[in-house]
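User: Some background: our group keeps a shared notebook of sequences we're curious about, and every so often someone picks one and asks for a predicted structure to add to the entry. Today it's my turn. The entry only has the sequence so far, pasted here. Could you supply the structure so I can complete it?
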Amino acid sequence: MIGILLAFCAAVAWAIGAILVRIGLQHLRSTTGTVISLISGLIMVMTLAVIFHWDSIWELPSGIFLWFFLSGLLTFPLGRFLNYSAVQRLGVGRAMPIMGIAPLFATLYAILLLGEVVTVPLILGTIAITGGIAMIVSAR
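Assistant: Of course. Here's the predicted structure to add to the notebook entry:
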């Protein structure tokens, strides 16, 4: 139950963040907004990580940091810049639902790279996500 609550809180935070980004991007370029967001996010996340997980950080195998670095490189600078550019050009109402297609790509990569098992609920969920995104984006 706590996982569902955390996921819901994350969704609310992302939604509020998208609105704040749209307001900020009325006065900035998406590159500037991305840099400001990355710096403020880095400060917040590093502070929380050090406060709550100092010992755990040092217990991680050194090779794991490469994967986190690669994930951070793709997710934060590149993904955020593309997200902010989309919000600036399309608006929140159309850009964010398209971002909602991320589970489709995550599922695809999980099947191809991690050997995830394809099940009927997985296929039905993927079709539902894709269909819902298509309906939102095509609506005028």
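Suggested note for the entry: The chain has two domains: 2-90, 100-140. The chain has six helices and no strands.
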